[in-house]
Batch of 2 targets.
Target 1
Amino acid sequence: MRRLQRLGAALGLMAVTLSAQAAAPSYELRRQTLASLVKVRATDCPDGDRAASGFVLERGERIVTAHHAVGGCRQVVVSFEGAEKDKLRPARIVRVHAAGDLALLEVATAPAAARPLRMAATAPDPESVFAGLGYALNMPSASDIEVRFAVGARRLRDILPPEAATELERNRSRIATDREVLRFNVALQPGMSGGPIIDATGAVIGVVAGGLKAGAAPASWGWPSENVRLLLASTEPVDQVVTPARTHYTLQDFNAVSAALAANRSLRCGDLDFVDTGTRSLAELMRGADDWPRVQHLLNISREDPALLANERFQVWLHRASGATAIVPAGYQLRAEGRVCVARSSQGPFEQVVFGTPAPGQVSVYAASKQYEEQLALARLIPWQFLQFDVQLTTAALSPITGQMEPTTLGQPTGLMFARKGVIMRRPEGLGHAFSTLVARSDTFLGVSTLNRVQHPGLTNCPLPATPNAYCAGAMAHLREWTRFVLATQLSTYPTY
């Protein structure tokens, strides 16, 4: 076990010292800003109904919102937060800035209490604290999330998972992925798209963007306020059709997540509380893969039709504050057991172990990784003897000391750092196997492992496809179940923001 390399200095680089003097929107200012919030709903769209947020700008009748929520829809209605929030008002699109995914709506009349927001006159202070406001997951009332700027890449194409960016291209999205965006230290929720991001004076420094399907959790960012100015001056056609069902969350998606949250299923796995947000298909989850070569390898060794496997469902467990997301195959019950949560197969030799903990800084991340690997995950397989790393499932690099490939940590421009390790071992029952995802971001650590107590010997001597005998049929059943567990472990990660 001593050969298992820990997450270390690279993960610790994420720790950022923040100014104690940073200005932040006060509670009273955020409460007053709610009077500027508008809930947007579009119907008769090419791909189903949609929902988003918006805010009043310039005058009460004009509303900024997300273009992907209204483009190509025959009917758009809005409701203003406050005394008349239950009154629906027809709205029409009067301007579009497709590259910035923004639209300007207009209503005939607005409530007297509607409070137009103003645009910030100067660039935002990167040391300040801001607030993003909107209707997360299409909730009845608006809410806010406190955010800070995050370090790292700024161009949208550099922070999106490759599959999510490719899906935008397939869908002929006009969103300009070569533009710089606002990066924040927390994830903004689907449904908040089109909502304002305000500074300590109440000025709008950007617009919530995202709601983008990017795997287990949505991708989110902010459009700088310059895009609003481009929207107000735009002469683009306002009847541009947008079909975002494969790229953005729709009203049906919001309702599914809301129904799962309403069931109020939560578990404490380690020191973090995870909530059940419902199921996603493998095809959806793969769009946010942070380590695509390993996903492709797992698909290749599954011996299954990729098109059929893509429809398999997986349960998504979310730590709301950090976005840490643990994936479990649908149909397997995740339960708290001491310091971890465990999902196990009913007949096979598999266990999936989930653990999360705060980890602010290099020392904490190292300690969390060490504790998880040695005391909480691999300890469940004792006794075992290390044989070798499963190189196809391990993030590795050539060690200048040993001259051999050794496990290492990889990073992304988003600030996410991750390591994945496959370990082949000898156990009393035969060959065993462990595959772990070790990830850290936002001062938290997430560990997810699939433990295989004994590998079916038929995996090495049954032909392809398996012959119709009980022995090889058992080997293929073993492989199918293992595939689902390791895909769930592989795809456990953090959202893009």
Note: The first strand starts at residue 37 and ends at 43.
Target 2
Amino acid sequence: MKIENSSYIPEKWRFYIVYGIAFTLFLLVGGRLFFLTVVDKDFLQNQGDIRAERTETIPATRGMILDRRGEPLAVSTPTWTVIANPKNSGQKSLTKVFHQSRKLSA
């Protein structure tokens, strides 16, 4: 069997079909990317925030520190913290806060 033409070139229409399909897929993916990043951006940003950002209160209770006989040396108790900024409040309101905090602690 003798091959007369050793450089076989397939039909050109096959190349056009393959390139057409590849170009169409490229346009579909690019269009979807554009839709997700430009048109539907607010919805997706909100969904990401819901999944990533959350506020959770974790109680910071600690165990007791005991000596070798089992007697407590240090015990954690829940406390309140009162903070007053003197720049934002006058002298009378600071005195009032001080007296109220003394009543709460008694």
Note: DSSP finds three helices and two strands in the chain.
